[in-house]
């Protein structure tokens, strides 16, 4: 590839780390072509030692951002994991990318950002809009479907208790692995879109929660009991567990989103971008079997 520089924000995070690894190892980007940002530069010392330009950038601190983004041709804006409103920090990052003269921006959004009832959907919608309204001519809006990893990271109780509480009914979602989404992001940076392109990055098979549970039983040896609830019943049940209100709202609105089939779809865009098929849920379960069985006490 040419000597254009690629910048990855959130490079210490789970997705960002994997994007950087794919860029260096699979896409032959040299360390000198890569800029990475984090709020804690010491966390990326290993990359700095390899010759990657490690810079500090906090989206909540707009003053530092333009300097941090200078010199980048293509910039991957990884949505932040902050608790609380993310819109302003994201808009700060888009404005700084524009001022720094970035030619192409890629952004990790979510499916159906405008219609979705999920509590944080409006933050993705506002960020997409800011990108489209900016002077940055080229953008890849990656509408990343749900990570398979959400099961052990956020919904481990399914494995721990053997009960899958859900109000998603027969709604389907085409989930995929975080690694596949990282590979797609690396591909989008190496071959930047011309103009504004929105990609629906889905897994290869759209499944109901019950179908996913059946695969978990088959591969992991669990015996998951589907507990089908209305949104109100799901909320009341979660309240009895003493969960904080924002977590309860997140769970119920995600299932509302899934019930409306807003994460349904095919892997066509993923395959076109990456030239490969996403890992299936069954293969992902096999690859992570030991860790998942441990959560299920098996
Ligand atoms: N599709 C899905 O199912 C799904 C699931 C989970 C999350 N997500 C989204 O995808 C993103 C990446 O996922 P992940 O698993 O890699 O999450 P993660 O490991 O929690 O990484 C989040 C990143 O956000 C960065 N960040 C937080 N606050 C920031 C700020 N004020 N300024 C600049 N950077 C900030 C952190 O960077 P530093 O700490 O290095 O500054 C960190 O690298 C998440 O942040 C979230 O928006 C999607």
Automatic annotation (TrEMBL):
PANTHER family in the record: NMRA-LIKE DOMAIN-CONTAINING PROTEIN, QUINONE OXIDOREDUCTASE 2
Stated name of the protein: SDR family NAD(P)-dependent oxidoreductase
Domain NmrA-like: 3-285
InterPro entries with a match to the protein in the record: NAD(P)-bd_dom_sf, NmrA-like, NmrA-type_oxidoreductase
